[in-house]
UniProtKB/TrEMBL annotation:
GO terms for molecular function: G protein-coupled receptor binding. Residues 200-358 form the Arrestin C-terminal-like domain. It holds the Pfam family Arrestin_N. This is Phosrestin-1. It comes from Parnassius apollo (Apollo butterfly). Residues 1-17 form the signal peptide. Keywords: Sensory transduction, Signal, Vision. It comes from the Eukaryota. The keyword Aminoacyl-tRNA synthetase does not apply. Coiled coil: none annotated. GO terms for biological process: G protein-coupled receptor internalization; negative regulation of phospholipase C-activating phototransduction signaling pathway; photoreceptor cell maintenance; sensory perception of smell; signal transduction; visual perception. The lineage of its organism: Eukaryota, Metazoa, Ecdysozoa, Arthropoda, Hexapoda. Belongs to the arrestin family. GO terms for cellular component: cytoplasm; rhabdomere.
């Protein structure tokens, strides 16, 4: 009996849907997170079900829309807007123009189940399109947070340029995320710096080495430090931090946030002629930075298990400076306090923070942790897509069984 139940859970398909306020058009998506694999990106494949009698000669259009908010709404004065909305894909869904469209497995299942009034659509993200990122606002901030968002908008109109009516249009928010490559590589990022002092011979040397180049969200970061003091100064304490670097390309703004930190006096002071070897362990998490304004997140603020924004990756042969939207990077920063007159010795070691690759063992473990939190999170699910207040998101058998809802 258990084997049969397990089989049902494995093959069941989870589908998201949302219906227009007048109930005449329903949009189905197999997922809301679409992965950018650097060299290619998952297509946005969906199905629209429409009451054909309601159309009366009109057409159904779908758009892929991105919204780039690079300033606060309360700062918009004198007609100046800090928001750019761009339609990066548009398609006439009903009547269907491309009858030879190549269907994905999810679309084939939905068309078979939903009948003749179901019509497929497919969008592809443009090359170098930015990933979804949300900048965490402060408690006193009002309006929508800054960041890059995507949505699929479907509406009924006489022509594609005609303004849509709220009663016959529907919007589903989606996310574009980046995952780590299948192999993390063997390179160990490191940095070696030294500091001399005026009117004093010798130097203090600091070597920092990380145990990996790519870390997964929630994974422990190990920073190995070697301090060699060949000067007349002493190292009084050591501080190790994980720094998130954020660049808003639209306004050429850059800032950093400390998302994990640890200060230690163990082994200090490091006196002249002495050395110290020490390992710091840090875990950068979004839930540990809920009160810090400007921290970049890779999800909606209403999600309980939202992660810090993933590192921005560019395909081979492209310059990282060509990335657009909100560019995110990470580094481990180590500071040695050499006293009031000695100042600080500082170094940064860059690394990448990403989601595990699809199909990997780490990804299966990551998904298992997500499922354990899903029962606590399900009360937020209905509001993730909503511009309106109605409950429009439903789940297929997999979610109902997982939430122990009655059949």
């Amino acid at each position: 009996m258990l084997d049969c139940l397990s089989l049902i859970l494995v093959v069941a398909v989870k589908v998201f849907k949302k219906t227009t306020p007048n109930g005449k058009v329903t949009v189905y998506l197999g997922k809301r997170d679409f992965i950018d694999h650097v060299d290619y990106c998952d297509p946005i494949d969906g199905v629209v079900v429409v009451d054909t009698e309601y159309l009366k000669g009109r057409k159904v259009y779908s758009q892929l829309v991105t919204t780039y908010r690079f300033g606060r709404e309360e700062d918009e004065v004198m007609g100046v807007k800090f928001t750019k909305e761009m339609v990066i894909g548009q398609e006439q869904v009903v009547p269907m123009i491309n009858s030879k469209m190549e269907l994905t497995p999810v679309q084939e299942k939905l068309l078979k189940k939903l009948g003749p009034n179901a019509f497929p659509f497919t969008f592809n993200f443009p090359e170098m399109s930015p990933s979804s990122v949300t900048l965490q606002p402060a408690e006193e901030d009002q309006g929508k947070p800054m960041g890059v968002e995507y949505c699929v908008r479907t509406y009924v109109a006489e022509s594609e340029d005609q303004k849509s009516h709220k009663r016959s249009s529907v919007t589903l928010a989606i996310k574009k995320l980046q995952h780590a490559p299948a192999s993390r590589g063997r390179r160990l990022p490191s940095s070696l710096v030294s500091k001399g002092f005026t009117f004093s011979n010798g130097k203090i040397s600091l070597e920092v080495t990380l145990d990996k180049e790519i870390y997964y969200h929630g994974e422990k970061i190990a920073a190995n430090l070697i301090v060699s003091n060949n000067s007349r100064k002493s190292v009084r304490n050591i501080r190790c931090m994980v720094v998130q670097h954020v660049e808003i390309t639209m306004i050429n703004s850059q800032f950093s946030r400390h998302v994990a930190s640890l200060e230690s006096r163990e082994g200090c002071p490091v006196t002249p002629g002495a050395s110290l070897s020490k390992t710091f362990y840090l875990v950068p998490l979004a839930r540990s930075n809920k009160d810090i304004r400007g921290v970049a997140l890779d999800g909606h603020l209403k999600e309980d298990d939202v992660n810090l924004a993933s590192s921005t990756l560019v395909c081979e042969g492209k310059c990282p400076a060509d990335a657009i939207g909100i560019v995110v990077s990470y580094s481990v920063r180590v500071k040695l306090n050499c006293g009031t007159l000695g100042g600080e010795l500082v170094t940064d070691v860059p690394f990448k923070l990403l989601h595990p690759a699809e199909g990997s063992t780490e990804r299966q473990r990551f998904n298992a942790m997500k499922k354990m939190q899903s029962i606590e999170r399900h009360r937020y699910e209905n509001s993730l897509y909503a511009n309106e207040e109605e409950d429009n998101i439903v789940f297929e058998d997999f979610a109902r069984l997982r939430m122990n809802e009655p059949e």
